[in-house]
Amino acid sequence: MTDLLRVEALCAGYGQARVLDGISFAMKPGESLALLGRNGVGKSTLIRSLMGLTKRHSGSVFFGGADLSAASPTRRARAGLGWAPQERAMFPSLTVEEHLTTTARPGPWTLEKIYEVFPRLRERRLNMGDQLSGGEQQMVAIARALTTNPRLLLLDEPMEGLAPIIVQELAAVIGRLIREGGMAAIVVEQHARLALSMTERAMVLDRGRVVHESSSESLLRDSETLGRLVAVAA
Amino acid sequence: MTSVIGVLFDGLAYGSLLFLVAVGLSITMGLMNFINLAHGAFAMIGGYFSVWLTQKTGLPFLATLPFAFFGAGLAGLAAERLLFQRLYKASHLDQVLFTVGFVFSSIAAAHYFFGAGQQFVSTPGFLQGQLRVAGVDLGKYRLFLIAVVILLTIALHLMFAKTRFGAQVRASVDNQDAAAGLGVNVGLVFSLCFALGSGLAGLGGALGVEVLGLDPTFPLKYMVYFLLVVVVGGAGSLRGPLIAALILGVFDVAGKYFIPQAGAFIIYVLMIALLLAFPSGLGGRRA
C-alpha cells in the first residue's frame, strides 16, 4: 500500500532557529503513531510543521501522494490533515456548535455523530469557546478536527492539564476513535504509556531527531528503554 | 430643550454615518492587525462615483448608492489584492507610511479628475426639508440616514452572527493559525472583508456628501475620526465601534453647537478619557 504521509529529512523551526533536524518517517492509511519524547524535543514543532505553521529550512512532506512541502495551512487542512492543536486553540467568539460546523467538510463525521460520541458537547453546544472546562475544550478541539473529516488526525497533547478522571474518560474515547475511526492518527503525549496503549507504532524524538522507532506494544513492554527515552509519568 | 434634542438627533445621524464608514476599518484591523490609514480614500471613491454618475448619466442620487457600494468595494478588493496584502507581515511603521502615501495619491487623483471644489448631490424631494415630530423639527435626510444605518447594522450583525462566513471571520479574528490550520482560507476571508468594508465606506461616502461634504482632502480630514471610532470602539467588533461612533457624533455636534470656540477639542478630550477608562476599547471582547 502506498504511504499516506511521508516526511523526508525535514528541517524546520521558528525563524532562524532549527528545532527539527532531519526528521524522516512514513505512515500508511489508517495507521496510528504515538509521538513521544521529553519536553522541548520538537514533538509539537513536528505537528505544527506538518500543518505548515513553522519555517521549513529543508526537506519534504508528501501527503496522499501530493507534495505539500510548501503548501499553506489551509491547503493542508483541506487535503485531509485534521489538527487538534496543543493548548486547544478555542475560538472565544464561537459557540461549541459553531466550532463543529464552521470548518466542517462532508464525510462520516456529521454533527449528529459527534454528539453521539461526545454527548457532553450537545449539552454545551450554545456555550462560547472560552466558557468551557479544560476537558470540554479538549473534546471540542478533537471533535472540531473530526468534523473536517480528516484522513490523518493530529492530536497534540490531548490530555495536557486534565484531571486524571477526565484523562481516563477521554483516553477511552480517543482509543476507540483510533481503532474504529478508519483514519490514521498521530498522538503526541506526555503520558507515554497511555499513548502507547492506544496506538500501533511509536516514534521517539530527542533534540529534533528520531531516536527510536518500534511497535507501540514492544516499547510498552520494554520499560528500561521507555524510561531512558521518555520521562515516564504514567 | 428643543435645541438639545435637535443637536442629539444631528449627532446621532452624524455618528451613524461615521460608523458606516469606519466599521470596515474595525473589521480589517481586527482581522489582520493591519494599520490602514487609507480607509477614508474608499469612502471618497464612493462619494465621487455617486456624484459622477448623477452628473454623467442623470441617474437619481438614490439609484447611484448601490454603485457607490460596489464601486468602492471593487476598488478595495483590487487595492487589497494588489497592494495591501504585501504589507501584512511588514512593520506597523511600513504600513502607516504606505497607506499615508496611498491617501496622498488618492487626494491627488481626486484633485486631477474632479478639481478642488466641494461636490454636491441633489437629494430627492421627499428627503428634503424637516419632519415635525412632537414639536421638534427633524431633518428628513438625517432620518433616512439613521434608518439606512440601522438596517445595515442589523444585516451586518446577522451576517457575522448567523452565517458560516461570519463564523469563519470570527474564528480568523480569534486565532488565525488555528482557523487556517482547520481549512479556513484566511486570506480570502480577509479580502472579502476588506471589499465589504470598503464598499460600506463608499456607501457612507456617498450618503455623506450631504452631511460631511466631499472634496479631495476628505480622506485626510476625516482620518482621525475613523481611527477614533476604531480605537475607542475596539478593533474587530461591531458593537464597540457603533457606540464609539454615536458618542463621537453626538459630542462633536454638541461641542461645536454649544461651545463653538472649543471646536473639535471636546471630542479629543472625551476620547482620551474613554481610552483611559477602557484601554482595550468599548467592545470589550473582540468581534
Which geometry of chain B do the CA atoms define?
Answer: globular
- Domains of chain A, number: 1
* Assembly type: heterodimer
The helix/strand class of chain B is mainly alpha
Looking at CATH, which topology of chain A would you report? Rossmann fold
Shape of chain A: globular
> How much helix is in the residues of chain A?
25-40%
Measured distance between first and last alpha carbons of chain B: 38 Å
CATH topology of chain B: ABC transporter involved in vitamin B12 uptake, BtuC
Strand order of the largest sheet of chain A: 6-7-8-3-9-10
Largest interface, counted with CB-CB under 8 A?
Answer: A-B, 26 and 22 residues
Features:
heterodimer; A: 234 residues; alpha/beta; Rossmann fold; 4-stranded antiparallel sheet; 10 helices; 10 strands; 27% strand; globular; B: 287 residues; mainly alpha; ABC transporter involved in vitamin B12 uptake, BtuC; two-stranded antiparallel sheet; 71% helix; 3% strand
Could you explain how this protein is built, in words?
The complex is a heterodimer of chains A (234) and B (287). With 234 residues, chain A is α/β, with parallel strands linked by helices. Chain A has a 6-stranded mixed β-sheet with strand order 6-7-8-3-9-10, with helices on both faces. In chain A, strand 1 and strand 2 form a beta hairpin. The longest helix of chain A is centred in the last third of the chain and has 17 residues. Chain A is built from 10 helices and 10 strands. The radius of gyration of chain A is 17 Å and the shape is globular. Chain B has one domain: Orthogonal Bundle (ABC transporter involved in vitamin B12 uptake, BtuC). The mean pLDDT of chain B is 90. Chain B is globular and about 60 Å long. The longest helix of chain B is centred in the N-terminal third of the chain and has 31 residues. Chain B starts with a helix and ends in a 10-residue tail after the last helix. Chain B is 71% helix and 3% strand. Chain B is mainly α. In chain B, helix 1 crosses helix 10, helix 2 crosses helix 3 and helix 5 packs across helix 6. Chains A and B meet through helix 2 of A and helix 6 and helix 7 of B.
